[in-house]
């Protein structure tokens, strides 16, 4: 028996397996979710849900809330790729669209890297309470980038780096009032809003960070600015 | 092996094939996590044709500006894969083949495709597998993409070696 049929069969089999894996494993785009119903996934490091005050909005925005286009971002402050995004494409997006009032970023927590990641993300709501969410957000990402990720220290993502003490210091440097932030961080006043935001990730079929939703399309990973530009421009033209 | 590859790539059609294959493979690796997005923009959106072509190429920007281990590994794997494709087509056109080389090339391509994204961040095709064995929090998870690309590169080198052995006799006879 010649080798030729074997080669053809082997090649075809590999191609079929390859393509099949590709389409089975690739994330399917989910319709953007504004619902509060969780499908299945249990988020990591979610603070215990307890009855507390529910903010009237409970959403975290960077930019003008009335901006036409919403860029939903699921992120974790300890995620190196999220930090990468904020150092590169994120800055361009904010300069071109957010600061000009054309788009806003709706930040949603997706804790991946331990309890302290959840704490840092919860701190976003405490900062929002003082009207300084953007400053806090930039300061925490900046802290992780400068102290760890810029030098390639990715082990930090698995260590307890964003303790309450560290977060308190970051909050003060971001212009927040220390006592109010510290009290909020250990309290329950924003637990409902936090848990609701985390659960939206399941509805949006988000499995990692950073993940973005613009219109009905999902962008996974810290992609170059031009990819976001096409999507935002499409939304602006609608 | 190097002499054979060099001889082959001096032929313009095979150089073009190698370059094109490398370009496409790199694109596939980089787009692996956003295939739905790519499909939407290319086939469903109102974006004009020129912009659609450019959209496919945007994903390459980071590779040539951000020289991380992962990006370098992606580039190396893609270039080797391109050379492998050129050799493969040359050997196939002369009605010769080697099942080992074919199987190795296919395995390398699959491994290369899985190397995209960030396993530690959950944005990787391997995330479901890793999560099931608690591997997402492992120290190496952050660099898993680079590791897989390098592994894929090793497999491709083996495939190139095997195909080059077959091709060397034919190439030596050609002027």
> How does the major sheet of chain A shape up?
5 strands, mixed
Annotation field: number of helices of chain B: 8
Low-confidence stretches of chain B: none
Largest inter-chain interface? A-B, 49 and 45 residues
Q: Give the ordered list of helices and strands of chain B.
A: HHHHHHHH
Overall shape of chain A:
globular
The total of beta strands of chain A comes to: 5
Structural class of chain B: mainly alpha
User: Uncertain runs of chain A with pLDDT below 50, 5 residues or more?
Assistant: 23-56
The best one-word shape of chain B is globular
Order of helices and strands of chain A: HEEHHEHHHHHEEH
Strand arrangement within the widest β-sheet of chain A reads 1-3-2-4-5
Terminal Cα separation of chain B, in Å?
A: 18 Å
What is the β-strand count of chain B?
0
Overall mean confidence score, pLDDT of chain B: 79
Notes on the protein architecture:
The complex is a heterodimer of chains A (238) and B (175). By secondary structure, chain A is an alpha+beta fold. Chain A is 48% helix and 11% strand. In chain A, strands 1-3-2-4-5 form a five-stranded mixed sheet. In chain A, β4 and β5 form a beta hairpin. In chain A, α4 runs antiparallel to α5. With 175 residues, chain B is mostly helical. Helix content of chain B is 71%, strand content 0%. Chain B contains eight helices and no strands. In chain B, α2 crosses α5, α5 runs parallel beside α8 and α6 packs antiparallel against α8. The model of chain B has no long low-confidence stretch (mean pLDDT 79). Classes of the chains: A alpha+beta (238), B mainly alpha (175). The interface between A and B is large, with 49 and 45 residues.
């Amino acid at each position: 028996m010649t080798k030729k049929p074997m080669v053809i069969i082997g090649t075809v089999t590999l191609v079929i397996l390859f393509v099949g894996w590709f389409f089975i494993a690739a994330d399917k785009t989910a319709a953007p979710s504004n619902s509060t119903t969780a499908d299945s996934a249990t988020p990591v490091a979610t603070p215990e849900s307890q009855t507390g005050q529910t903010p009237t909005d409970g959403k975290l925005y960077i930019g003008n809330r009335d901006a036409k286009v919403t860029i939903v971002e699921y992120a974790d402050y300890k995620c190196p790729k999220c930090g990468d995004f904020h150092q590169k494409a994120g800055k361009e997006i904010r300069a071109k669209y957010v600061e000009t009032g054309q788009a806003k970023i709706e930040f949603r927590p997706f804790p991946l890297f331990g309890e302290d990641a959840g704490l840092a993300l919860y701190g976003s709501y405490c900062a929002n309470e003082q009207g300084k969410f953007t400053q806090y957000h930039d300061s925490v990402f900046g802290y992780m980038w400068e102290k760890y990720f810029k030098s390639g220290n990715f082990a930090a993502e698995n260590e307890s780096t964003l303790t309450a003490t560290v977060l308190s210091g970051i909050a003060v440097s971001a212009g927040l009032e220390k006592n109010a932030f510290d009290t909020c961080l250990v309290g329950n006043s924003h637990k409902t809003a936090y848990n609701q935001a985390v659960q939206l990730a399941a509805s949006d079929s988000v499995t990692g960070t950073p993940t973005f939703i613009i219109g009905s399309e999902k962008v996974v990973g810290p992609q170059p600015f031009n990819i976001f530009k096409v999507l935002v421009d499409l939304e602006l033209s609608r | 092996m190097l002499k054979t590859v060099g001889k082959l790539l001096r032929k313009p059609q095979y150089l073009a094939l190698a370059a094109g294959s490398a370009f496409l493979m790199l694109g596939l690796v980089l787009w692996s996590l956003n295939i739905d997005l790519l499909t939407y923009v290319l086939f469903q959106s109102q974006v004009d044709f020129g912009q659609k072509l450019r959209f496919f190429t945007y994903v390459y920007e980071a590779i040539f500006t951000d020289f991380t281990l992962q990006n370098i590994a992606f580039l190396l794997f893609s270039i080797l894969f391109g050379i492998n494709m050129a050799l493969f087509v040359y050997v196939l056109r002369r009605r010769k083949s080697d099942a080992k080389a074919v199987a190795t090339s296919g395995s390398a391509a699959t491994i290369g495709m899985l190397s995209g994204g960030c396993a530690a961040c959950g944005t990787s095709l391997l995330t479901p597998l890793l999560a099931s064995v608690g591997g997402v929090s492992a120290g190496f998870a952050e660099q898993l993409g680079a590791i897989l690309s390098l592994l894929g590169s090793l497999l491709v080198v083996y495939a190139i070696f095997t195909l080059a052995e077959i091709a060397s006799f034919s190439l030596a006879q050609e002027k």
